[in-house]
Amino acid sequence: MASRASTMSSSATPSVSQSTKAAAPANGNVIKRLQSELMTLMTSPTPGISAFPTADLTRWNATLSGPADTPYASLSFKLTLAFPANYPYAPPEVLFKTPIYHPNVDMSGRICLDILKPGGQGKEGAWSAALNTESVLLSVQSLLGEPNNASPLNGEAALLWDSNQEEFKRKVLARHVEPSELED
Amino acid sequence: MDSAYDVPDSTDWLNTPLAALADLENALHCQICKEFYDTPMITSCSHTFCSRCIRTSLSADGRCPACRASDQASKLRNNWQLQEVVSTFLAARPQAIQIARAERDNANNARKPGKRKRAVLDSDEIAEVEKGGRTTRSKSRRTEASQLSQQETIEVEDSEGDDDFEPEQPKDDGLVECPLGCGKRMKIEAVEPHLDRCEDEKEAEKRAKSRTPLGAFGGSRASPRQTPRPQDRISELNYSLLKEGAMRKKMDELGLPSFGSKQLMVRRHTEWVNLWNASCDSSRARSKRDLLHDLDTWERTQGGKAPTSSQGHAIMRKDFDGAGWANKNKDDFSRLIADARRKKNATPAEPASKSEGVEGMGSSATHPDENPMSDGTLPQASSSQQCSGNAHANPSESAELGAPTLSTNGMHGTSSNLDNPQSPIQQPSEPANGHLEKTISGNGGDRRRESQDYHLNSQDGKEPCELPSHVATSPLKKMPMFSIPHELSET
C-alpha cells in the first residue's frame, strides 16, 4: 500500500514528488494531506508566513515575520515543524530555530501554545484536526504580539513585558539573530 | 500542461474564467483530509466530515474539530445530500475544467498578435484547418484508400486540437484506466482506493453485472443509491475493564493481530472500530479483507510496526519519562559505567581536571567504590538522575538534555519532571555548603551545580576525598550526576 501510494503520488504531482520518495515510511494519508496543504500555501500565500518541506515531507521549515507594532516588528524567525504519523489527529511539533526572547518560548525554542498540544478528555490542549500549517503559523505569529503571560515559559520575559516594554524590546533585539546569519 | 500531472485541485480553476469555482470546490472538501468528502457524516453540532476522518478524530479527542463541541461517534449521521452534491460535481468537473481551460487558452492566444486568426477559431475549426492541410500534403498518396486519410485526420485532431487533451486517451472524459488492467475507467483520485479493491470489485461486478451497468463514473464512490450491505456497526470496548489477556482474546475473536502491549491493542482496536464503522456508513461497504489491509497500513505507519525514529526528539519533550528511559537503557548505562571503571583501573589516580568531554566518565571513575549505580535497586529519583548523567557523558546528547533542565526551572508549572528528583537532595544541602555557595555565580536556578556542590561538600565532611583539594573546591568543576544516588542512600 505504501509503495503504491508513493508511486501514485509521485506520478501525480510534479512539485512535491521528489520529497514524497524520501518520506518512504510515512502514512499515505499524511502525505496526501501535507501535499494539499503545500499546494494551498504555494498558490495562495499568506503575507508574513512561508513554509516548505525538507527532503522529508513530514518535516518542514517555516519563516515568520514579526508582526508590526510589536517588539518583534521587522524581525524574521525560522521555525521547524515536524508532523507526526497520525497528523492531523495530533498536532505538529513546532520549534523556533531562531533564538527568541518571548514569555511563551523557552531557550531551546519550544513554544507554549494551547493549539500545539493534543486535546482530549482531561487535557487542556486545543489542537484540532481542522487546523493546518497555515493556521498554526498564524497563531504563532499572533502569539508574538499577544503573549500569554499567565503561563510563561520564560518568567523574566513575562514580568518584563508587563513592566518595562523598552527593556523588553532591548532584550528581544539582543537575543535575535537574523536567519541569514544562523549557520545550519 | 502534461496530462500525467493533471491532479484535480481547486487551484485548477484559478486563472480561468471560472475562478469562482475554486471556492465551490474547496467547500466540497473535508476539513480534516482536505479531499472531496468521502461518505460525509454530520455531527450533532452540524459540521460535516468524511466518515473515517471524523471517527478517527473523535476517538482521539472526543470533540468536533471545527467548533470543539464534544461529540460521540454514535451520534454521527450520514449527510446523503452532500454526498450527492460531491459525486455530481465530480462527474461534471472534467468537462467543466476542459471548457474553462479552452476558454483561457483562447483568451491567451487572442493576446498574441501573430496568432490572431487562429485564436478566433475554436478547436473544431482548427481541426478542420489541419484536416485540409493534411489532405493536401497527402496528394501523392491519393491512390490510397480514402479511409486511410480519414484516420490520419482523426489523429491530428487528437494531438493538436486542444492543449489539455490527453493524447493517450481515446475518450475525452478526463478519466484514467485502472493500472491493474481491469479495464475500468475512473477519476484519477479514485485510482488509489480502487487499486486496493480492484480484485474484489471484479468479483462483485461479475455477480451484479446485469443490475449495475458500468457507468462513466465506475469508480469507488459511484453509486450512492445502491442498497448498503446490512452490516452492524461495532462499538469500542470498555478497555479499562479488560485485562491484557482478555483483550488479546477479544482481538483473536475479531480476527485481528493480537501482538503487542495492551495499550497497542487498544489503539489497534480503536482504529479497527473506526475503519469498520466508516465502511458501514458508506453506501458501498468494503470487504473485511480490504479493511484488514488498511489496518495493516496503520500498523506499519502508526502502530506496532511503525518506525520509532522520533526517539531523539522524545528526550526533549516536557513529559519525557526519565525513569522509564533509564530503565529501558539500563544495560547501556551499566556498560558505560563499567567501561569507565575499567578505564580508571587501567590508568589509576589521574587528576580528573581534564577536558569537558570526558569529565562525566572520568570523575565517575575516580569514585568507583562509592558508586552504587549499576545495581537494580535504584530509587526512582536516582534512575532519573542516572539518565541525565549518562546523557551528560555523551557530548552529543548533553546539549539537548541540558536545555530542558535549565530552561524549565521554576518557570513553568508542568515542566519539572527532570528537576523534581533533585529537590530532596538540594534542600538539605543548602545550609551545609555555605562557603561554596559564595564562590558560585549565585544563580538559584542552576540546580545541577548546587547538587554537585552538595556532593563535594558532603564528601569533604564525611569521607576523605580522593580528589586533590583544588579540584574539589573549584566551583567550575562539574561533578557527575551518577554520584548523587550515593548521597541519597547515605542521608
From TrEMBL, chain A:
The keyword ATP-binding applies. Residues 1-24 are annotated as: Disordered. One of its GO terms (molecular function) is ATP binding. The keyword Transferase applies. Residues 29-181 form the UBC core domain. The active site is at 112 (glycyl thioester intermediate). Keywords: ATP-binding, Nucleotide-binding, Transferase, Ubl conjugation pathway. Gene3D superfamilies: Ubiquitin Conjugating Enzyme (3.10.110.10). Residues 1-20 have a biased composition (Low complexity). Belongs to the ubiquitin-conjugating enzyme family. This is Ubiquitin-conjugating enzyme E2 2. It comes from Cladosporium halotolerans.
TrEMBL record, chain B:
Its EC number is 2.3.2.27. Residues 377-397, 405-430 have a biased composition (Polar residues). One of its GO terms (molecular function) is zinc ion binding. The lineage of its organism: Eukaryota, Fungi, Dikarya, Ascomycota, Pezizomycotina. E3 RING-finger protein, member of the UBC2/RAD6 epistasis group. Associates to the E2 ubiquitin conjugating enzyme UBC2/RAD6 to form the UBC2-RAD18 ubiquitin ligase complex involved in postreplicative repair (PRR) of damaged DNA. It is found in: Nucleus. One of its GO terms (cellular component) is nucleus. The keyword Transcription does not apply. Pathway: Protein modification; protein ubiquitination. Interacts with E2 UBC2, forming a complex with ubiquitin ligase activity. This is Postreplication repair E3 ubiquitin-protein ligase RAD18. Residues 154-167 have a biased composition (Acidic residues). Residues 102-177, 196-232, 341-491 are annotated as: Disordered. Residues 239-273 form the SAP domain. NCBIfam families: rad18. The keyword Chaperone does not apply. GO terms for biological process: DNA damage tolerance; DNA repair; protein monoubiquitination. It comes from Cladosporium halotolerans. It comes from the Eukaryota. Its main location: nucleus. It catalyses: S-ubiquitinyl-[E2 ubiquitin-conjugating enzyme]-L-cysteine + [acceptor protein]-L-lysine = [E2 ubiquitin-conjugating enzyme]-L-cysteine + N(6)-ubiquitinyl-[acceptor protein]-L-lysine. Residues 196-207 have a biased composition (Basic and acidic residues). It is an enzyme of class 2 (transferase). SUPFAM superfamilies: RING/U-box. Belongs to the RAD18 family. Residues 30-68 form the RING-type domain. Keywords: DNA damage, DNA repair, DNA-binding, Metal-binding, Nucleus, Transferase, Ubl conjugation pathway, Zinc, Zinc-finger.
